[in-house]
Amino acid sequence: MPINIPTTLPAKAALERENIFVMPQDRAQHQDIRPLKIAVVNLMPTKMATETQLLRLLSNSPLQVDVELVHPISHESKNTDPDHLQRFYTSLEHIRAERYDGMIITGAPVETIPFEDVDYWQELAAIMDYSRRNVYSTLHICWGAQAGLYHHYGIPKYPLGEKLFGVFQHQRYDNNMPLFRGFEDSFPVPHSRYTEVKAEDIIARPQLELLAASEEAGVCAVSAHQGRQIFITGHLEYDTDTLAAEYRRDVAKGLDIAVPRHYFPGDDPQAKPTATWRAHAHLLFTNWLNYYVYQATPYNLDELEEIKTHLKEESDE
Fold first, then answer.
1. Whole-number pLDDT of residue 302
2. Beta partners for residue 44, in sequence order
3. Cβ atoms within 10 Å, residue 21
4. C-alpha closest to that of 213 among 187, 238, 240
5. Residue 142: active-site member
6. Is 220 a known active-site residue?
7. Strand 186-196 relative to strand 208-214: parallel, antiparallel, unpaired?
8. CA-to-CA distance for 192 and 5, rounded, in angstroms?
9. Catalytic residue among 68, 237, 246, 280
10. E strand or H helix at 41, and its extent?
11. Residues of the chain with pLDDT under 50
12. Which one from 142, 151, 220, 280 is the annotated catalytic residue?
């Protein structure tokens, strides 16, 4: 997929080194097609690394994609150059009049903080409300998935006894689900989090469908409204060395952190890890773009209809 991003975005050089087709904006404007419009709400502190990870996965299709980077302006990022945010990111206030085929809401390292105490919670809640009316399919990742399930459906998060850290096998529950088309029955997903959502809470909501879970890692994938909202609790977008870098960072801080499970060969943190999840990551994003965005979204985005969550209806009963 040719992805249309600013020519000067640092991720462009990294993607081109991997032979990923990045289309300059001026060339994209001369193609007589309507590209898919995807907004990426990047909540990660390492924004530039996350940009590259997600753009790599969005590129694996013959479709053209216009990517808009969004961040909450109510939060002051301590790990990203303000000039980078100024040049390449926009905010909810500037996209309110826009419609998108798809949106991705990333994770964030705030899962131990109550949702309402996160400094940009009100702005993120407004973005999630916006997505119901102006986005055809929204993909929520890790804490973004927990935040979306809580905001839209009242699903709580629960603290874990220790950090869920490593690569875990998951089982899919519906062999006909297009999101997992081409997946093995069991597939690996990286996780790095201190909280979880529980399967019984998901099952208790008739508008939610549990798609995949793990005996060790719990809930992995949830869908609502035929894929208009998708929630993935892990990090399939992670690079091979992302968990290793997190582990070394925490060790350097003196934290009591266990070695990521099922990640380093022989559980030896000096060994070089391998990305056992890479093919599934590409397949999941390709399936999302194809079956839940491209084939489902109206050609005229002004025809989008608001998603109904039934929360108000239930509270009125």
1. 81
2. none
3. 12
4. 187
5. yes
6. no
7. unpaired
8. 29
9. 237
10. strand 36-41
11. 1, 27-32, 311-317
12. 142
Segments in 254-317 forming alpha helices (H): 278-287, 311-316
* Residue from 152, 235, 246, 280 carrying the catalytic annotation: 235
Please, is 194 exposed, middle or buried when counting C-beta atoms within 10 Å of its C-beta (0-12, 13-18, 19+)?
middle
Name all domains of the chain by residue range, CATH numbers in brackets.
Answer: 3-158+195-239+278-302 (3.40.50.880)
What is the reported pLDDT for 100?
A: 96
Name the residue with tokens 């990022």: 77
pLDDT at 200: 98
- Please tell me the total number of residues recorded for the chain in this structure: 317
- CB distance 113 to 193 below 8 Å: no
Six-digit token string for 261: 């499970």
The whole-number pLDDT of residue 212 equals 97
Contacts of 63 by beta carbon, 8 Å cutoff, 6+ apart: 1, 35, 36, 289, 294
* 217: three-class secondary structure by DSSP: coil
- Predicted pLDDT of residue 238: 97
Q: What pLDDT is recorded for position 314?
A: 43
CA pseudo-torsion sign 170, 233, 221, 283: negative
pLDDT, position 312: 45
